[in-house]
Amino acid sequence: FFPFIFIYWLKRSEFWIAVLYCSSMMTLYAIAVPNVGTLYRFRYPYLMILMSILIISGYKFFYKKYYIKNE
Predict the structure, then answer these.
(1) If you ran DSSP here, which 8-state letter would residue 11 be given?
(2) Whole-structure pTM value
(3) C-alpha triplet 66, 2, 15: angle, nearest 5°
(4) What are the CB-based long-range contacts (under 8 Å, 24+) for 2-11?
(5) Which member of 2, 8, 60, 61 has the lowest number of beta carbons within 10 Å of its beta carbon?
């Protein structure tokens, strides 16, 4: 689904704001926290934001491609 996100959301600013926020927070925690187990817990909410964008955009892509053609 990852390439489909960039096709659908490439020119939308809300996608890039979410990606920049989540990736910068994960990078900040990776630099600041030396414990690897703690990093998994700290980055989980930011990864879930990115995964929810991935799932929603994949659903929208396939919905537009298959269901609208059949109607």
Answers:
(1) T
(2) 0.66
(3) 95
(4) 2/54, 4/57, 4/58, 4/61, 5/53, 5/54, 5/57, 5/58, 7/61, 8/57, 8/60, 8/61, 9/53, 9/57
(5) 2
